[in-house]
## 1
Amino acid sequence: MNLWPILLVFVLFFLNIPVAFSMIISALVYFVFMCEGVPMDVMTQSLLSTSESFTMLAVPFFITAGCIMGYGGISSSLMDFCEVLTGHFTGGLGHTNVLLSTFMGGISGSSCADCAFESKMLVPEMEKRGYTKGYAAAITAASSCITPIIPPGICLIIYATAASVSIGDMFLAGYIPGILIAISLMITNYIVSKKRGFIASRSHRPTWKEIWPQLKKSVWALILPFGIIMGLRMGIFTPTECGAVTIVYSIVIGKFVYKELKREHIKHIIVDSVSSTANVLLILSAAGLFSQYMVWEQIPQNMASALLNLTSNKYVFIMLVLLFLFILGMFLDAAAALIILPPLLVPAAIALGISPIHLGIVMCLMDTIGGITPPFGVMLFTCMSVTKVKLVDYIKEGWPLIVTVFLICILVALVPGISTFLL
């Protein structure tokens, strides 16, 4: 079993070579120099086949819908609604931050998009209200872990495609873990805010007369996640068709209901969505080529056998997977990990009686948590680049929040019913 390409990938990571190019280079080195007789057109086909999947069209559709909603005023109306609901609590804007990420999960589905949006919109306001920049950035990054778990999370779609499981089931399985993380982060935020003296953003509990106008304004965004789930479960449309319908819905709401979507926004929406989509699909294509190397060397079968020989206890297995994914998530983009790893882990999990849906939620959670931890966390870098916060301040202020998310992930891993209850 030739493991040199895997070693080369990590060497390239540490040299700051982008994830996609690291995997492409390593796979090409293997097929050109270490494996004779493989035609170049086979490698080209492997590179392109992943992105040609009809199901994967759901990814650019939902990314585009998220961009449209950002420019169309839907995201900002949700933020106002969250602030009305939670602003009177101690640490009110921190609660708003968490609650907004929960609702954004049903809109953008992207942790990076949510992290970038809230870093721009909420962190400066939190600083004005007395929060330290380190804590404001940390809770923004931590709460972005919720977004890809709440349907239609991009991570859920990618895993379901790679593991050949139902996207609708993955969507349903994400609700309870996502809400559980949100509640836990709000409790942690309350405790920290109480100790640190972070005051409420509103002086009084909201009345129904204050809530009702914001609820009416935000209802068009709030019903979207439930519409997606109902449409998929009732067979009205496929996940890809659902993404297209969401784009049309967001255009109509942004243009005719909120009336904030303008013609001049079209260029920015196209640039933002194409840029984000290209980044994801390039990683997926690179992972597809790299996975061909692993299949060629029978690494999935060997790893599954090794894990089964190591332990026959499914709880020990899931904890080993947690540790492995946590470390890997610090270095590898979540999209790449969710393409590469399911063929490695799903066969062993099924052999031990672990539901692939449950494993998928655990994998999505752990990969996302890796994104908010040093040294190469994607959301960590997104938040730091937007807010200009120092890494030492981020870690010092944010460790209780990171620990909270990690503990909830362990709970979800050890109690399968949390993710499979709605199935």
## 2
Amino acid sequence: MSIKPAPRTVEPLALAFATVLRRRRLAQDLSQEALARRADVSMRFVSLLELGRHMPTINTMQKLARGLGMPLSDLVREAEDEPPQE
């Protein structure tokens, strides 16, 4: 008998951050790879963030905000204001 892990629930804030990150990246016509280079993170990590599979640390959020050329406070505020996804 094998035991299957419980399905992961996606936190609403992770989904909101994912939406804002992708929207901001696309608005600047950046690929995930380009943003990853600017933010000094892996492209795979950017992909997982945009899918809502991971929630970044505050340090990573700062790197992403700098990579997007915006203050971290604006990035967080947009994520907080993002309507819940159903």
## 3
Amino acid sequence: MKAILLTSLFFISLTSFAKTGEGEGIEFFHGTFKQALAKAKKENKLIFFDAYTSWCGPCKVLKTKVFPDKELGEYMNAKFISIGVDMEAGEGPQLANMYPVEGYPTLMFMDAAGKVKKKVLGLPRGGAKELLTVAKTVK
């Protein structure tokens, strides 16, 4: 019985891995906001800033249903340094003073100096396609 259960779990995990695939979706930078700005400047890219909280339901939908989209990821990874920040932890409260948000999630598109070019409040109703359309308007 244990062998069957372990085998089933193994195949489920393989299926899950194959479904998401490596390199699909938005790849988020793991570092500070200041480091993300420096990387964007060095690579001549813009910043995509996901301001979220741990308790926010729509934020979780973005992470599980929108950000993993392959087409969105290909575009965003080529044009943006993406960073997600919990606005209630770590450097989040300090960044909330610099970039006040009216609700969560707030998605900001910025230049490499940190100037906000476009802001999206809430979960885009059109999902990944809508977010991609917005991202393509940011110069």
